[in-house]
Amino acid sequence: MQIQGYFDLQFEAVKDAFAALFDDPQARGAALCVQVGGETVLDLWAGSADKEGAQAWQSDTLVNLFSCTKAFAAVAALQLVGEGKLELDAPVARYWPEFAASGKERVTLRQLLSHRAGLPALRELLPAEALYDWSAMTAALAAEQPWWTPGEAHGYAAITYGWLVGELLRRVDGRGPGESIVARTARPLELDFHVGLADSEFHRVSDVSRGKGNFGDAAAQRLIKAMMTEPTSMTTRAFANPPSIMTSTNKPEWRRMQQPAANGHGNARALAGFYSGLLDGRLLEAELLNEMTREHSVGDDLTLLTRTRFGLGCMLDQPEVANGTYGLGPKAFGHPGAGGSIGFADPEREVAFGFVTNTLGPYVLMDPRAQRLAVAVKACLA
């Protein structure tokens, strides 16, 4: 497999680890970007962007980043907190009056961002097309009763996070949630990152598909079992209501919509650049970054059925949990996306890391491919 791009010789072992990913006959395309102290030490890509293997992955290939998008949404919201337009501990209903229904009058932005609001899913099954109807989804969430007492537990809001946080952005920032996020994060840093992709960019997007025959770790198997055997459970509803959530990622209407939980499109360079921008203070004041990266939720996740640890819109490191560590340092923070893409920062080593792939793995938190690359980076820094 021919590896394209640039690497600093100090990090040749990381380049070799990246190349080794393609020893898997199912591996199609991937990219890796690592910045240390704001300097790019690796910017690599390889493989194919299409399912047939006819189209090579390019320097500017985009891919659906899934939940990596959540951290960008959180930063946009925290910037509005810094501007005095949102408050972390004010009721969401102050900005979105309809949200007060069904016992949610005291739910706060802090609880939304840390997955403590009790709204990871909708009970009533919605039609597939509701996925693309912003007002239908936000109205359903405004009416929904929390699945637990808000603030007393946490459960990952895999997709509802996008409508919940996005509706606040829309109401307070006066523009579409994707427009707000891109204007506040990507544009100032000149990142090739999109939430609501223009049709003119579709030719750059790699189709994603699942690898076959790998059932993942114990956490992934628990999740799959729950979804197969408990159709009305909160976990199943979180990922399959509307039922189109699981089957839409390569569709034009998915790419066009602004769903800031899961449909950001970008590349490894955009992820690394975003986390460099957080580390060097260009995106958030230190006080707000500290708030974002401080532990808000830890322990049994009622949605993911595994142990998770969250700040505000970011996943924090769990060094003692095999599928819960970024593999660099205990202060690392960032966000994985379904199937293997990941962006994160390790402030102790000033590392910003972005990895993207179009060959989706079956893991719930961190993908072992990205973890192996991060461990290789750590070894090169020693």
Q: Quickly give the CATH architecture.
A: 3-Layer(aba) Sandwich
Total helical elements: 12
CATH topology: Beta-lactamase
Class by SSE composition: alpha+beta
Summarize model confidence as the mean pLDDT: 95
Q: Strand sequence of the main sheet, in spatial order?
A: 1-3-2-13-12-11-10
Low-confidence stretches: none
What's the Cα radius of gyration? Answer: 19 Å
Organism: Zestomonas insulae
Pfam family, one: Beta-lactamase
Protein name: Beta-lactamase family protein
Report on the architecture of this protein.
- There is one protein chain.
- The protein is α+β, with helices and mostly antiparallel strands and 382 residues long.
- The chain has one domain (4-71, 182-381): DD-peptidase/beta-lactamase superfamily (Beta-lactamase), CATH 3.40.710.10.
- Helix content is 32%, strand content 15%.
- It contains twelve helices and 14 strands.
- The strands form four sheets. The protein has a seven-stranded antiparallel beta sheet, with helices on both faces. A three-stranded antiparallel beta sheet has the order 4-7-5.
- A hairpin with a 5-residue loop joins strand 11 (333-336) and strand 12.
- Helix 2 runs parallel beside helix 5 (160-173), helix 4 packs across helix 5 and helix 5 packs across helix 6 (177-189).
- The longest helix is centred in the N-terminal third of the chain and has 14 residues, at 69-82.
- The relative contact order is 0.18.
